[in-house]
Amino acid sequence: MTIELFIQNLFNALTVGSLYALIAIGYSMVYGILRFINFAHGDVFMVGAYLIFFGVTAAHMPWPLAALTAIAAASALGILVDRIAYRPLREAPRISALISAIGVSFLLENLGLVVFTGLPRPAVQPAWMVDPIPISLGAAGSIRILPLSFLVPLVTLLLVLGLLWVVNHTRPGLAMRAISRDIETTRLLGVSVDRIIALTFGLGSALAAAAGIMWAMRYPQIHPFMGVFPGFKAFIAAVVGGIGSIRGAVLGGLLLGTVEIMAVAFNPTLSGYRDAFAFVLLIVILLFKPTGLMGEKMEDKI
Amino acid sequence: MEKLIKTLAGAALAVLLLAVPAQAQVKIGVYLPLTGQNAFGGQLELDGVKLANQELPEVLGQKIELAVMDNKSDKVESANAVKRLIDRDKAVAIIGTYGSSLAMAGGEVAESAKVPVVGTSCTNPLVTLGKTYYFRACFIDPYQGAGAATYAVKNLKAKKAALLIDVSNDYAVGLGSFFKRSFEKLGGEIAAELKYNSGDQDFTAQLTEIVSKQPDVLFIPAYFAEGGIIMKQARELGANFRIMGGDAMDNPETVSIAGAAAEGFVHTTFPYDPGMTNMNPQAKAFTAAWKKANPSKETNVNAALGYAAYVMIYDAIKRAGEATPEAITKALAETKDLDTPLGRLTLDQDHNPAMPVGIIEIKDGKRVYIGEIQPE
User: Fold this and answer.
1) For B370, phi and psi rounded to 5 degrees?
2) Nearest to B109 by CA among B137, B77, B139
3) Least CA distance to A263: which residue of chain B?
4) Which residues contact A63 (CB under 8 A, 6 or more apart)?
């Protein structure tokens, strides 16, 4: 492989990897605080992508306003889902909440099918984000990079920093960390546990919607099942990075993206096995480090 | 005595019930994707069938009635739809469907129930191969792949081609290999053959490799949903070669998803288009009838295929002289020189008609019908 192709593929990997990371941090945050895998995360991601689509095309909002509205509405959806489907199961065995989450996931997908129809729609892409910039590498040739390829890692970085700040330096963040240690004691200390958990879901859903918006810009086609595959891959990225760890989710996402792209780049004839390559490597990582790359030893994993 | 009267009355009623539908009507079943991913093509094919039913409402002095089922673009629903059309609606013949894998699922049911089916736009050879009861109104993929390769070599003067194929889709794998075979036979070289799986959204690694090989043409036998994204990502990576596809790209969403990246995209299709200049009399009559029936909606090739499938069954019933599944099957197999909007159709021993391959190019964001090509 020429150096030019390698660098181009490195940027391809950075783009797809940081998108996985963006979805994975939502999974990891909710898990880290509640020890609960929110399987509806990928579907909130889908709802976020539809909300910005309708915000721009139907409500004629400018793009940034539509993005903020979509994120706010998705976060309200997350809080609503928690109130209806998870909160009544707080005292039930953890597996019940997990099944409830799978139910919410199917409900959102099929509701999407009825409300939005199954026909894929083109997503809205502001031109300045997707006009490729040619970059000359001197003698090695030139590569082409989308502004979006810089924007997605930047957004991921900002959201991770913001999230770490909320969790580590604010009072609700302190309550979140307390809940993650011992929910009963936290309640006894006078913390409104339900309100903090609702806030956690609100934040997680906002992250999912932000990821959905970025994803739809890179892959401009939205449909009710668009969250299934990315959600699945991001979940795996979160587990490989060490679920519960926000930095681990970023690392896992970038690693998964890099392996997927490089597997094809180095073996073009075996490109049909792209996912297989990626997953074999991930299995190997988990065999040697069962808690994931940056995970702490924890009990009660699902 | 009272019991006897009751029995007699019951028997008379039964005779009456049995007799009335038998003399009044012929039931033709229709199964198409009216919802889901393939709804665009399925809906237009249904409109074409309905138009033909308005034009030719009676055969052998009996009224033809349509029974319509939605197969929801889903293989399982497709098999169920055919089962219901046969068991509940007692259809003597069935029209459908868009999509080869849907047709194969439905075909198994029809084959065991011995009811003839005429496919609309299911192009994989396996839909009718070795089947007694499946026929079709469209050409098959070896023919379409050869048509695309011929156009690439003869008209676009391509010498090097690349392929990007969805390995989990029968249609894509078949069409891709037929294109490859013809392209090499015509003296071209396959510079790269890359693969992906249905549902993938990121093709940058595959496309980076393809762009580096500098082919003259990239053939993507994809459905429009993935095809649109592939075109977009290829252009973002600096691809300046021509991109080509098959009939599954014939959808308005192709342009709305790919946007400017669709410019110059060429795909094969069936030889009918409302914009074609060399229409045969049947195509002209069909287009005029459509405009009268649906003034606000434009017709397309799928509507013409739905229309043609109905005409094939109508013609078979007329020649058979009776509307039973067995007689219709026998007459369908002998379909010869039947004039339809898609040309004069004659079915070969595998129940496939021969017809030229239509070529569409996207110019200034609009589909333009270039003309027909005879595959070599």
Assistant:
1) -80, -40
2) B77
3) B205
4) A52, A56, A124, A126
pLDDT of residue A47: 96
Q: How far off is chain A from B201, nearest CA to CA, in Å?
A: 6
Cα–Cα distance measured from residue A189 to residue A183, given in angstroms and rounded to the nearest whole number? 10
- The answer to whether A241 faces chain B, any CB pair under 8 Å, is no
pLDDT digits (tens, 9 = 90+) for B179-208: 999 999 999 999 999 999 887 889 999 999
Rounded CA gap, A183 and A187, in Å?
6
What is the DSSP secondary-structure string of B268-306?
EE-S--TT-SS--HHHHHHHHHHHHH-TTS---HHHHHH
Q: What is the C-alpha radius of gyration for chain B, rounded to an integer number of angstroms?
A: 23
Instruction: Give the CATH fold of the B142-269+358-373 domain.
Output: Rossmann fold (3.40.50)
Alpha helices in chain A (DSSP H): 3-34, 41-57, 63-81, 94-116, 127-130, 147-169, 171-181, 183-188, 193-218, 228-241, 246-266, 274-288
Query: What is the number of other CB atoms lying within 10 angstroms of the CB of residue B89?
Result: 17
Helix (H) or strand (E) holding B133: none
Q: Which residue of A16, A121, A132 is in closest CB contact with B236?
A: A132
Quick one: how far is CA B13 from the chain centroid? 44
pLDDT in tens, A178-230: 998 888 899 999 999 999 999 999 999 999 999 999 999 888 889 898 999 89
Q: Is residue B252 less than 8 Å (CB to CB) from chain A?
A: no
**Interfacial B residues in 122-161 facing A (CB < 8 Å):** none
In chain B, domain spans: 2-139+280-345, 142-269+358-373
Question: CA-nearest residue of chain B to A110?
Answer: B36
A236 Cβ partners below 8 Å, 6+ apart?
Answer: A252, A256, A279, A282
Percent over 90 (pLDDT), chain B: 73
Instruction: Kindly state the percentage of chain B with pLDDT values over 70.
Output: 94
Crossing angle between the packed helical segments B281-293 and B39-55, to the nearest 10 degrees: 100
The complex's ipTM?
0.82
Cα–chain center distance at A40 = 11
Q: Which CATH architecture has domain B2-139+280-345?
A: 3-Layer(aba) Sandwich (3.40)
Question: At B294, which amino acid appears?
Answer: N
Q: What is the pairing mode between strands A133-136 and A142-145? A: antiparallel
Asked if B280 reaches chain A (Cβ–Cβ under 8 Å), the answer is: no
What 8-state DSSP symbol labels residue B353?
Answer: B
pLDDT tens digits for B171-187? 899 899 999 999 999 99
Instruction: Give the pLDDT mean for A4-23.
Output: 91
Q: Is the separation of the CB atoms in A171 and A38 below 8 Å?
A: no
pLDDT given for residue B36 in this prediction: 78
pLDDT of B81 reads 96
Asked, colleague to colleague, whether B2-139+280-345 and B142-269+358-373 share their fold, the answer is: yes
Q: What span, in angstroms and rounded, lies between the C-alpha atoms of B62 and B85?
A: 19
pLDDT tens, residue by residue, A253-296:
999 999 999 989 888 888 888 888 878 888 898 899 888 888 77
pLDDT digits (tens, 9 = 90+) for A20-76: 999 999 999 888 888 888 999 999 999 999 999 999 999 999 999 999 999 999 999
pTM of the model: 0.82
Contact B217/B242 with Cβ under 8 angstroms?
Answer: yes
Query: Where do the domains of chain A lie, and which CATH numbers do they carry?
Result: 3-288 (1.10.3470)
